[in-house]
């Protein structure tokens, strides 16, 4: 049995407290009126406003043109038509626009961090189901680690659900389509209102989360039961529900990515988006499994996990990183090549306003793992896997950042206190929940028909 | 210079593995082992060095990538930068997404084919090559270990091989060193 070290508990709590302070600070420092925005801009940009009129930037977003006069691009304050209406040159409309972006920022930061850790748990659950359904012989010694990580699914999912409720019913301004005033002036959003409305969003979210929670509950229950029984009854039950879950998962995951991420840019759509989100989710989940396993192993808890298991996880990290890049590039290249205005705005705003995170995450999520994890020997070196894992996880956080932020805060983005605060808070919560869950059952499954093979696994 | 080699034939890969261990432990030199299929772990037991073919493959891949980049940069950007359907041909990076499929394929093409050719060359395989097979049964269901007889006591070596479970032991004059 694993006992939660008090140091780790303290570590998690410190992160939660510091993170909570950061989140609150983020909300408190968000401007409340256009006057405050004006003041903040004056503080930040000083006399740059002199050059305002000389730079006319046209950003074509959501299929409509906006001619906006702005300051130079580095702190351009326009956001590409968040409300889908023609922004006017007037100072007041511009300030109004910036105000909305700045007010969105702490919410977006919260949303991204919340989803990031939630998707790790969800990806771990899918990976767990795949290992059961595929009757993998190498992984049973890691099943309890995966079960521990999926424990975050429930609290993370509930927070996600609350955040979605706040966004879907327009308590905050995250989802443009949730604003009835915007929809009233927007034909495209009216056309999509049958799918994109608060009630439908919550019903779907409840179905998705309910299904995932249910599988998680029963898979863990059967796994615990199998420790105290002779036959393979529980294993067979888990096998069956895992196969069923995977079918359910791939549909719901796809729809979840439309609802929870793609709808930040409701004028834009992409057909491989669900796969793309899935690939990122799997990379993060497998990386986290590897890191938690390495940590527990270093504390002397996972007797039967050897370098070969880590090697396998390293191969999965490597493979899924490439798979993610393949999907990222496929989506990008198809849209870049065809250059259809209504689709390409999505990438225009990202390349114009988010150049460093947009291309930086590509290096972190592709070049880094490819070069570091290509060598078979390196995949057996634990600190190498951990190092790569940290970069990959950071890269996928930035990936989510670039998916969400352009649709909510536009050019007013920055990775500062609200973002880091939210990240710290959910990291602390994640560590706390996961490691508490690990204490609930022995770290090695008994009676699993493949556990002996897994113990002696050697690659 | 004619040397003598002892051929010991086994009919089970497990026995063979143990025999290889024993013979090496007794400090005899194993010239070669012939098996009808890959025996996992045999290379480790024999003390063979790990292959470096993956490293060559990686370098061939880099060559392929370089070939793709240089070729397309010359053709599409430097030599005749036409406007084809509005694609930006001002610099390589501006039009790079369109080149990536070719960069990828050429990397894989070079890495795969040159590695295979390297394998053929290093293992001396080509059409019309004379088969180096000491006993036809080793391609079907028998395993053969060739031990260098050298200046050793043949009786003692034969006894050792017999004890390891060899079903046939024969002393061969080895004229052609291969």
From TrEMBL, chain A:
Domain of life, source organism: Bacteria
Biased composition (Basic and acidic residues): 80-90
Annotated TM spans: 12-30, 109-130, 151-175, 195-215, 241-261, 273-296, 316-336, 356-374, 381-400, 420-438
Membrane as UniProt keyword: yes
Keywords (A to Z) from UniProt: Membrane, Transmembrane, Transmembrane helix
Region spans: Disordered: 62-90
InterPro entries xref list: MFS_trans_sf
Protein's UniProt keywords contain Acetylation: no
Protein name from the UniProt record: Quinol:cytochrome c oxidoreductase quinone-binding subunit 2
Automatic annotation (TrEMBL), chain B:
Keyword set, alphabetical order: Membrane, Transmembrane, Transmembrane helix
InterPro entries, sorted: ActD
Membrane-crossing residue ranges in chain numbering: 53-76, 96-120
Name this protein carries in UniProt: Quinol:cytochrome c oxidoreductase membrane protein
